[in-house]
Amino acid sequence: MALAPVLEARGKAVALMAHDIDTDRIIPARYLKAVTFEGLGDALFYDERFDEAGNSKHHPLDDPQHAGAAIIVTGDNFGCGSSREHAPQSIQRAGFKGIIAGSFAEIFFGNSTTLGLVCAVVDERGRAEIAESIAADPSAEVVIDVVEQEVRVAGRSYPASIRESAREALMTGYWDPIGELLEGVDKVRALAAKLGHAR
Amino acid sequence: MSQPRSLFDKVWESHTVGKLRNGEDQLFIDTHLIHEVTSPQAFGMLADLGVSVLMPERTFATVDHIVPTHTRVEPFADPLAAAMIAELRKNTAANGIKFFDVGGGLQGIVHMVGPEQGITQPGTAIACGDSHTSTHGAFGAIAFGIGTSQVRDVLATQTMAMSKPKLRRIEVNGELRPGVYAKDVILHIIRTLGVKGGIGYAYEYGGSTFDAMTMEERMTVCNMSIEGGARCGYVNPDATTFAYLNGRPYAPAGAEWDEAVARWSALASEPGCHYDDVVVFDAADVPPTVTWGINPGQAIAIDELVPSVENSAQHDKASVAEALAHMQLTGGAPIKGTKVDVAFFGSCTNGRVTDFIEVANVIAGHKVHPSVKAIAVPGSHLVKLECERLGIDKVLKEAGFEWREAGCSMCLAMNPDKLEGDQLCASSSNRNFKGRQGSPTGRTVLMSPVMVAAAAVTGVVSDAREVFGAKGAAA
Asked: Fewer Cβ within 10 Å of end Cβ, chain B: N or C?
């Protein structure tokens, strides 16, 4: 049950340079009151983008220069807090293919990889330069190269690291593990019998 | 003589089904907990795959995030909430999953229900689509918050794919000072190590301070492991653990109990086992701690000054500026005396009977300040009943707290309990993120339940030891 390999994420980028952007901010809890993930793309960063009357706060995501962006560049510990998969779902459904951060919160990282969303770590200086390139030319194409583990923009390249297990999964098309997990069900039954029931 | 091993290594290895192509482990999950917010899409994915729940007897459900706490009359006023609970009823019934529903007497926050029922047991691997699943680590379980795709994975295969994190031992030794609580310990740890300090790690909490803690206190600490960035956090099982579990509905009984205790005892980390990192704290250094900013690591001692942008490290300046602006605080000013609009006492961090006893002990004879809205929300229906048996509900109501039904309430505001406008909330919950408590401009100051009581009484962020005297200083 291999899926399409994800070898790169490519497109225009938007810089959201704060650290510790939590999943409540990415997708406020009121948008979790649903039984599907439909429509979550519109609610991405909603309270950062709009005031309580619904007026635009001129967030970079709503800047026409960044329309159609596919890459987010951000700070450390992106996606911390709540385990809600709604966060990477909303990012992906808003059209993003990859995120460049200083680090990623663990659960967010796992949730994103399972969706085929590329999470790459670039050091602070590299991210600052990438953000400068985007500011200088918002139409500049940013490439996260999963195979070469580098980010390229404006003729320059920056070392990027992607956790090896995630990189391998993306490159081989096994980023959603369900198929492989299902293959192991006989072994799971045997282990369950050996461990015994917890109760 | 084999190498000494940690509990984490033992449980991880015994639960590994095999290696996946990408090098991750396929990890067996003994116990899966689900709730209404992160499970409906997972059942939908199962249907799309044409797969059924592999081991329905290993999944337990309850409803907590969206339930109103001021009424239990259905249908709920919010049609979205009604639809979510209906979906969970349908999915649990169709798949033969035990559901602790409202009205059944055992409903509560999912992280309260597992321990109360004895479902949470030492040496097990536990998963739940909620980041505060780390709470269950208090029992010597390895307990992971997961996303909805992983809820699907566990329902379909009773396993999930995961890379083994490194292990950090966080040791706290000695006696806590009077007026210092488990909540202060974990806030102090997160403040010191940072909200991203735990990335890539599982945390083992050890040392004489944790040894002396009740299970409820250990749950408070493990609950907020995720706030420190750790993948999970646990305390080795001991006599305190076993005494808590003995006689609970799903705990082993009779001869099986003795066998289980022997097995659980052997799981504890062995002296000399390998840790990738060790951090040691002195309990005497832990002050009553409150947050001043917009993440749980932005915390200070109650008598400390709020940090200023100028005095912050270069890396933190922008974050500090953003936090000060949101919180409407001035760098260099005291946090003590900051006006409070709402006092929220509850959540999976601090909604247990022992928390309510501590607050009842100090607040008797005091009145909530007229400008403060104060709500007390038991973490589970069983907590509510026990508090009512002890007369704690009366003490709190006499003081001016509203006494509510069990649920997540104002911790995350997916129900009618929300901040309005830029209200400032003294909160015993776990997250002070922007907008977390339901208003985008709302402000949260995290603290222990006794400190929430002190803030409720004075109408400002206060040192409980000063407000309640010797009573507030009883640890």
From this structure: N
